[in-house]
Amino acid sequence: MRWRQAMLAALEPAPGETIADVGCGTGSFVVMLKSAAPASTVIGIDPDDEALAIARRKAADAGVEIEWRKGFARDVTGPADAVVSSLVFHQMPLVEKRAGMAAIYAALRPGGRVLIADYGRQRGLMRLLFRLTIQRLDGVEDTQPNADGILPDLIREAGFEKVREVDRIHTITGSITLLEGLRPG
Q: I need a labelling partner for 4 at 20 to 30 A (CA). Which of 37, 161, 167, 176 fits?
């Protein structure tokens, strides 16, 4: 998927960095990340045992070593140089979005970065596609704040600076926005 390549390009992982993937799911991005950054420590975090089992198999098949942790976004711990998350925040209640962003901020070293690839503000046709797909699958209550564009504000509220939209990718389910924020340091 194009958003994975965009996120990896924006991340520009450096050797020796510690990078956590919050909500790694079945591991597609975290395995891609470790394959592209073999000299980095990569941590995959997800609350779903079955998803983590699939992720472990993918990592083994790819011949990469990843540290696995069971937990929600609010459970992330550091220290990390970067934290990434993809297609997770739209599924969380607003209180969990805030708790997750605060935990990500706390887990990052000063100068660390957060990169979020998720459904952001939906406009025009993308809003219709989002309503017909994601909101039918994941419900309106948790997804609507994302569709209304809340993610940049949540990133700022957590303490991040230089919050910016890196990319917006249109998909058949709505637009995925890639956002970046920096922890002051």
A: 161
Encode pLDDT of 154-173 as tens digits.
999 999 999 999 999 887 77
Q: Is the dihedral of CA 167, 162, 152, 8 positive or negative?
A: positive
CA–CA distance, 177 with 121 (Å, rounded to integer): 8
Residue ranges with strand state E in the chain: 18-22, 41-46, 67-70, 80-86, 108-119, 161-171, 174-182
Q: Quickly state the pLDDT bin for 27 (edges 50, 70, 90).
A: very high
What span, in angstroms and rounded, lies between the C-alpha atoms of 111 and 160? 10
Provide CB contacts within 8 A for 97, sequence distance 6+. 89, 145, 150, 154
The CATH number of whichever domain residue 40 belongs to comes to 3.40.50.150
Taking a C-beta distance cutoff of 8 angstroms, is the pair 131, 144 a contact?
no
Euclidean distance between CA atoms 99 and 92, whole angstroms: 10
What does pTM read for this prediction? 0.91
Distance CA 20, CA 53 (A): 17
CB 103 within 8 A of CB 89: no
Three-state DSSP at 38 gives coil
> How many independent structural domains does the chain possess?
1
